[in-house]
Design goal:
- It is built from 15 helices and ten strands.
- By secondary structure, it is an alpha/beta fold.
- It has two domains: about 1-125 and about 205-310, Malonyl-Coenzyme A Acyl Carrier Protein, domain 2, CATH 3.40.366; about 130-200, Alpha-Beta Plaits (2-Layer Sandwich).
- The strands form two sheets. Strands 8-7-2-1-9-10 form a six-stranded mixed β-sheet, with helices on both faces. A four-stranded antiparallel β-sheet has the order 4-5-3-6.
- α5 (about 55-80) packs across α15 (about 300-310), α9 (about 140-155) crosses α10 and α11 (about 210-220) packs antiparallel against α12 (about 240-255).
- The two termini are about 10 Å apart.
Length: about 300
């Protein structure tokens, strides 16, 4: 069985999607639709930068989604196959959950782009720059990370944002608490703490203003039952009910991305092949979670053609 998985923020790069658009009308149409939805030339920014502007949360989120959906649409067109024939499940890391829902037909492309633009803007506005931060804990499992977070909080917010794999957990919260946590890693048997170059403390309770903005927007958004089951970040379980999808997307803004458990649960459901579309970030995590899994990353026309030829 096969799962299509979609990357989160951090997988953006200047030049993304350019070669695919040059090779495929289908890809160009995806980028044009996203540009039209957002009333900006996002694709030019993806192709030519500048990098600091592409990295802005409000641009990076729809850009990463557009690149992944273009990859999927090209695959569907070139292979003359539907999503349901190509995979059994979909899942995405953080913003990638929106991409997964778009891939599965629960959200249309225009709505997905608009929601991600708002999500990026709302997350950026939720906490003044410098007040919040995030850190990656390398050589940490969820138990060690939880102990460290509790010790470092000292009345401030310091919580687990991403449970990525058995060796990497990301924490988020007030900058003071995150800096204290980095300084305490050795005391908790953690190899290393690395402050992340992010502009806001994602996936913690400081993002509540952004969650409220997304709740309002999602209440108005049209959501259809997905064509294949989606594994949700905050529950690590399958979801197909449209009201539940809506609620879980709101909770995801402040909740933990339970990626490790999602991969384990997909594996238990029978998935033995994970195919990452539009990035090369999640494959390493998957391998550390399930050493038996096969991993494929599709980022170019050559990748897509090779994957289709092997079906």
């Amino acid at each position: 069985m096969r799962a299509f998985i979609f990357p989160g923020q951090g997988s953006q790069a200047v030049g993304m999607g350019k070669a695919l658009a040059e090779a495929s009308t289908t890809a160009r149409e995806v980028f044009q639709e996203v540009d039209h939805a957002l009333e900006q030339n996002l694709f030019q920014l993806m192709c030519d930068g500048p990098e600091d502007e592409l990295t802005l949360t409000e641009n990076a989120q729809p850009a990463i989604m557009a690149n992944a959906i273009a990859t999927l649409r090209v695959m569907e067109k070139e292979g003359d196959q539907s999503l349901a024939k190509l995979c059994n499940y979909v899942a995405g890391h953080s913003l990638g959950e929106y991409t997964a829902l778009c891939a599965a037909g629960a959200l249309n492309l225009t709505t997905t782009a608009e929601l991600l633009k708002l999500r990026g803007q709302s997350m950026q506005k939720a906490v003044p720059v410098g007040e919040g931060g995030m850190a990656a804990l390398l050589g940490a499992d969820i138990k060690k990370a939880a102990g460290l977070s509790k010790a470092a909080a000292q009345g401030e917010i310091c919580t687990i944002a991403n449970d990525n794999d058995p060796t990497q957990v990301v924490i988020s919260g007030h900058m003071g608490a995150i800096e204290r946590a980095v300084g305490l890693v050795k005391d908790h048997g953690i190899k290393r703490g690395l402050l992340l170059p992010v502009s806001a403390p994602f996936h913690c309770s400081l993002m509540q203003p952004a969650a409220e903005a997304m709740e309002e927007a999602l209440a108005e958004a049209s959501i259809l039952p997905p064509k294949v089951p989606v594994f949700a970040n905050v529950t690590a379980e399958m979801v197909s009910d449209t009201d539940e999808i809506r609620q879980l997307l709101v909770e995801q803004v402040t909740g933990t991305v339970r990626w490790r458990e999602s991969v384990l649960n997909m594996s238990e459901a029978g998935v033995d092949e994970f195919v990452e579309l539009g990035g090369k970030v999640l494959g390493g995590m998957v391998k550390r979670i399930n050493k038996e899994a096969n991993n494929v990353s599709l980022t170019s026309m050559d990748d897509i053609e090779a994957f289709l030829a092997a079906l």
